[in-house]
Specification:
Chain lengths: 265, 469
């Protein structure tokens, strides 16, 4: 009996310690992912191709400018295409302190009107695409527990496959995801693939980075797909291309203001 | 012995459960990974855009062609002029040129032309000439301006432009610098009716403050429906007004008639406020009898402000304006007299942003005449009340990844809506990036307000086909 109990305890302790150490490692990995340098500012063009289940495509082209400081990430984006929204702009102040509400303004060029709007919640669709506003932001480390599931090669690169579970129901409500599986490329600490489990409709979203570039020593995804599926059925897909990307430019920070929103970048 | 065997059995069960769960999870993970392979073939991704100089284009020209048709289903038939059944077949061309002179200076040149074939089809002879002049065809320049930075804090914008004041999107309080096209009231959004005016506008920015000084160089008035049109029917008047000779003495655009405006706007975290003042012409004018009837336009002074506050998923806003020395006609016996009154407009509104891709807005407004006299008349010579109350409700919703857009708007006049109002609902579907179709319905509700009662038969369904290039 003693032998059986001893064997059981050893097995249990191995399992527990393995899981626990994986959790610690997984969190450390995610901390490194989050602390990866992304530049103090970034200017780029963005093209989103929205594809519905009938393979009909809609294209959105944007010009974006982003400035990252310790307290706030300010970003401004203007539509270049389609023509019915050309010149429309969004100015967003995304505060690091979760207690402070983000702020957002909209510019409508036909009316030459600037309008404050309630900042879009993280779970809401970004411009009608498969990305949410939360997908466009950094992962909030403290909102999740992490576990390494396995190691795997993706496009010839070693990755950790990490499960991220929200710590409480509030995080699920905010992000819209009950679970995420993240594929972190080991050599550069970059999420190259992800699966997001939506809280509604038993849907999943598949993020796939198809092109990575290093510009000024900063890694950036220049071609990404996000596909929404229900089981094996594809519901909608967005291809996000980024080009003309420039980091750490000598930019006039006053552009990231209501003045910039009115005048364009 | 038996206990030992049970323990072994228990341990074996735990291991089997663990192995099974790992196997099940492994299968789930594999299934997930397989989906990525499928994704690659789901839609072969388009070629990524090449690095290019599209941001440096000096001149960009674009435009749109649209066909607007409407069917008036409430208008009495067999009447002249005929506004019943098919009431508009209007084709319109809009052209726009954006010019980037350099990093700091930009320009815009915008114009349109339209032709409504319905008058030709139904017979032009039955329509008053003013109606044909205003509704059959038109070509105009709209926004034509140059803007840029004079210094790091000071911007200049000069030319025909729109200036947007106030927080309300549906009712007018402080937004008085641009005139409106009121020829088809209720048929489109208020903002779409705004007419650009030539201005010289200086904007000074410091921290979260914006100070604007504006010289309005062009005197431009609202476009009103001519007498005898759908929206200004003869039935509105107790006298055959189309036979009365009234000369319209609109002031011309010259240095002496320059109008002035200034604003201070401040934006802080989740809170904005603004102050406005303007010395402008009163666009409604008054009738004066100097042997002949003349419509004269005087200047008024407006001082106002607005405030907005974000509370969770709500935006609360308020807007107010004080107008001094406004002139009104009023009937005294058989005479037309002029009386003056200051007016205070107060608006409160609320927006709800809590649903994805949905915006719900409600606004209420009271225009209060401080020196009210019985018999005061509005621009259509209809008696007005001491408190003119308006309500507006609006719902905007996007569906199918922002491809299908649904809108509903209603506006009512009077404390309990007893003066009448309008409902409008429309759906816009983006067939492609360049082509969209709109289907809409407008329903006017008659009431105590003579004007709304007179135009209530203009209920219609309409379609707009729009192609952009």
């Amino acid at each position: 009996m003693k032998n059986v109990l001893l064997k059981f305890l050893i097995l249990l302790s191995i399992l527990v310690s393995s899981v626990f150490s994986d959790n610690i490692n997984a969190r450390k990995i995610m901390e490194k992912v989050n602390s990866r340098y992304e530049g103090q500012n970034q200017i780029s063009n963005m093209e989103m191709i929205l594809i519905n289940k009938s393979s009909q495509k809609k294209v959105r082209k944007l010009r974006t400018l982003k400035q990252i400081t310790d307290n706030v990430t300010k970003s401004i984006l203007f539509f270049n295409y389609p023509l019915d929204v050309k010149g429309s702009g969004f100015l967003t102040y995304d505060y690091s302190d979760m207690v402070i509400d983000d702020e957002q303004w909209l510019y409508l060029p036909a009316l030459q009107k600037t309008k404050r709007i309630v900042s879009s919640e993280r779970s809401k669709s970004f411009m009608g695409s498969d990305f949410t506003y939360g997908d466009m932001k950094k992962h909030e480390i403290n909102n999740y527990t992490y576990k390494i599931l396995k190691s795997l090669k993706v496009n010839g690169h070693d990755t950790w496959v990490i499960e991220a579970l929200p710590i409480n129901h509030k995080v699920i409500e905010e992000t819209g995801y009950t679970k995420s599986i993240l594929f972190v490329q080991k050599d550069i600490y970059f999420i190259v693939r992800a699966v997001y489990f939506l809280k509604e409709g038993k849907k999943r979203k598949y993020l796939d980075i198809q092109e990575l570039k290093q510009i000024k020593n900063i890694w950036i995804a220049t071609r990404t797909t996000m596909t929404t599926q229900q089981g094996r059925k594809k519901l909608h897909q967005t291809i996000l291309n980024q080009y003309n990307v420039k980091f750490d430019q000598d930019i006039d920070t006053s552009l990231l203001s209501l003045r910039g929103l009115k005048n364009g970048i | 012995m038996e206990f030992k065997q049970n323990s072994k059995l228990f341990l074996s069960k735990i291991i089997i459960v663990l192995l099974l769960s790992m196997s099940v999870f492994g299968n789930e993970l594999n299934e997930i990974l397989n989906q990525f392979d499928n994704n690659q073939t789901y839609n072969s991704p388009d070629k990524a855009p090449q690095e290019n100089k599209e941001n440096d284009a000096r001149l960009v020209i674009d435009g749109e062609i649209q066909l607007y048709t409407s069917y008036s289903y409430s208008h009495p038939s067999n009447m002249e002029p005929d506004y019943a059944k098919l009431s508009h077949i209007k084709s319109r061309l809009d052209l726009n040129a954006d010019i980037n002179f350099n990093q700091n200076w930009k320009g815009k040149l915008e114009g349109y032309a339209f032709y409504d074939a319905i008058y030709n089809i139904k017979g032009q002879d039955q329509y008053p000439q003013d109606v044909l002049d205003d509704y059959e065809k038109e070509a105009e320049l709209e926004n034509v301006y140059i803007k840029g930075a004079l210094t790091t804090n000071l911007d200049l914008k000069i030319g025909r432009q729109l200036v947007r004041w106030g927080k309300s999107d549906n009712l007018v309080v402080t937004d008085i610098l641009n005139p409106y096209d009121l020829r088809e009231p209720g048929t489109f959004d208020l903002d779409e009716f705004k007419l650009p005016v030539t201005m010289t506008k200086f904007d000074y920015y410091f921290n979260a403050w914006n100070l604007s000084l504006i010289a309005i160089n062009e005197v431009r008035f609202d476009k009103e429906p001519p007498i005898g049109s759908e929206y200004n029917p003869l039935s509105l008047y107790s006298v055959p007004i189309h036979t009365v000779n009234i000369s319209d003495n609109k002031p011309s655009s010259n240095l002496e008639n320059t109008q002035w405006a200034a604003s201070v706007q401040h934006s802080s975290h989740n809170f904005d406020f603004s102050l406005y003042s303007a010395d402008v012409f009163d666009k409604k004018g008054t009738l004066e009898n100097n042997g002949t009837l003349q419509r004269e336009y005087d200047r008024i002074f407006m001082f106002g402000g607005d405030i907005s506050l974000v509370v969770d998923k709500w935006i609360l806003f308020a807007e107010t304006a004080y107008f001094s020395d406004m002139k009104y006609n009023n009937i005294s016996g058989s005479n037309i007299e002029i009386s003056e009154s200051d007016r205070l407009d107060i608006l409160g509104g609320i927006e709800y942003h809590g649903f994805e891709d949905v915006l719900i807005t409600f606004e209420a407004l009271d225009r209060h005449l401080l020196d009210y006299k019985q018999g005061m008349l509005d621009a259509y010579f209809q008696e007005i009340k001491k408190n003119q109350i308006e309500y507006a409700f609006r719902l905007d919703a996007d569906f199918l990844h922002q491809t299908l857009h649904f809108h509903y708007f209603t506006k009512y006049f009077g404390k309990k809506g007893e003066e009448g109002g309008v409902h409008r609902g429309w759906i816009k579907y983006d067939v492609t990036d360049s082509f969209d179709i709109t289907l809409g319905i407008i329903n006017y509700i008659g009431g105590d307000n003579n004007y709304i009662e007179a135009i209530k038969d203009n209920d219609r369904v309409y379609t707009v086909l729009k192609y952009r290039f």
